[in-house]
Amino acid sequence: MSWLDQMKTVKSTTKNVLTEIDLEKIRRFTDNELDKISKNSELPFCYQVGADTVVVGAYKVLKIDNKTWRVQQKDQQLFDFFTRKDAIFYCIALHKKDYILAKNIQDNDQQLAKLEADAILYRYRYKRAQETENDWEIELYSNRYAETMARIDHVKKELKKNINLAKYIKV
To answer: How far apart are CA 29 and CA 20, in angstroms?
Structure first.
């Protein structure tokens, strides 16, 4: 048997170990570089990692489910948002140290989610009242639904205003 034939039959057992070590080195290097960029920059560094995570400065926006986005800072959970856009602009406001704007974005997002849940409930109860032909409940839930929709419209305008402020924060 020649030396070439002997080389072909030998299998490497360290190949997987080296790959795992190399991936860990790459992860650490990437995290260090992202930290440097986010600390030295006046504007937050935004980068999408994978399909469901966005890094905004020192913060991460993670998708929890279709209606929930979590903001984290160094693996510490800050808040859950109901839209990705709100979570990202919340992080931008925090990065620029505009805590009042960040709080307004968070409050509007939370209020909008609550109002939308209320609207679904009132709509459901209105339909049940129609089925039972209860005029008093039909009137009640119709009015509550209309009032909730008006409040939703107002909160959406406030949220849009706050997001626009976050877009154009002066340095």
So the answer is: 14
CA distances from 11 to 38, 110, 164 (A): 44, 57, 59
Strands 68-73 and 46-49: unpaired
10-residue mean pLDDT profile of the chain (171 residues): values are 52 54 73 62 67 82 88 83 88 86 92 94 94 92 94 94 78 45
pTM as predicted:
0.68
pLDDT of 171 = 45
Beta bridge partners of 79: 71
C-alpha span between 129 and 132 (Å, rounded): 5
Domain that holds residue 21: 3-167
Cα separation, 160 vs 91, whole angstroms: 16
Number of domains in the chain: 1
**Could you tell me which residues come within 8 angstroms of residue 81 by beta carbon, excluding any fewer than 6 positions away?**
61, 68, 69, 70, 71, 87, 90, 106, 109
- CA dist 96 and 119 (Å) reads 35
